[in-house]
Design a protein that fits this description.
Number of helices: 6
Oligomer: single chain
Order of helices and strands: HHHEEHHHE
Strand order of the largest sheet: 1-2-3
Strand content: 5-15%
Number of domains: 1
Number of strands: 3
Radius of gyration: 16 Å
Structural class: alpha+beta
């Protein structure tokens, strides 16, 4: 991870109490995302589909990275991908990757995303 994203992500990790950061924080997170990844069409499109906010789902009330304007946590998206068969395009792009490697990478990504979440207090 480049240095730009470390600051807002560190801020999330250091904030164990849980509090909605609002538009200013989301703007800073997205600017850091583009700074680290550049303003490619894919990155510009991606920032329109995520933000940091509160989601209520079967895991409870959670504050974290989520799909913008939807009640879906990014960690749940990655978690749902765990166990899928290694896609042909991925195998062609990374020939040495096997199913176990993919499963482990998705599990790691899920756990990293969950570590950035806060169980939201009832007063959030």
């Amino acid at each position: 991870m480049a240095n730009g994203l470390k600051k807002p992500l560190r801020f999330i990790l250091d904030n164990e109490q849980g509090s909605f950061f609002g538009k200013h924080f989301n703007d800073e997170l997205k600017m850091a995302f583009l700074s680290d990844g550049s303003e490619t069409p894919d990155n510009l499109e991606a920032i329109e589909h995520f933000d940091f906010g509160i989601c209520q789902n079967e895991r409870g009330k959670i504050e974290g990275l989520k799909v913008k304007n939807k009640n879906i946590m990014i960690s749940d998206v990655i978690n749902a991908l765990e166990g899928i068969e290694l896609p042909k395009q991925v195998k062609e792009f990374i020939p040495d990757l096997n199913q176990e490697d993919l499963d482990a990478a998705l599990r790691l990504a899920t756990m990293i995303l969950i570590s950035l979440e806060n169980r939201a207090a009832d007063d959030i």
